[in-house]
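User: Some background: our group keeps a shared notebook of sequences we're curious about, and every so often someone picks one and asks for a predicted structure to add to the entry. Today it's my turn. The entry only has the sequence so far, pasted here. Could you supply the structure so I can complete it?
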Amino acid sequence: MDKYLSKKNNCLILDSNQESWPKNSSLYYMGYWCLEKIESSFKNRDKFEVVNSAGKESLAINNQMNEIFQVYNILILDLSNYLNKFHKKNYSKKFWEIVIGPWLKIFLGIVSERYHGLNDAFSKFDINQIILADYEHEDFFVENVGDL
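Assistant: Of course. Here's the predicted structure to add to the notebook entry:
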């Protein structure tokens, strides 16, 4: 038998749409958000293999937070300069921190968590397939902050 045909399929799920999940595969979920459309998934979460940051040592969490803080400090400066030029303004860095700082911190936290989660998944499991969410451009537009 061909070694590729006998290899077990391990799939990393990054989508909550069950219709896109492969059958006859071991499924690993990037986070609990992938299970949001499954009834009683949170009551039965032991049935699901979820890759997340639970159980990380405080040193690893501290390093990740420092990483986010360093990137934030670089980006807020770059974004302040860019946004001032774009809008033909001369607002201070502090102004831009008030306006976009909270969003930027949340965004960087999410990106960092996903990045480290992917690294954890690939180091712990023999992943050979990934299911990504299938979004349209319109899915990323929001009417206001309340839509987030």
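Suggested note for the entry: Helices lie at 3-6, 58-87, 93-124. The chain has three helices and four strands.
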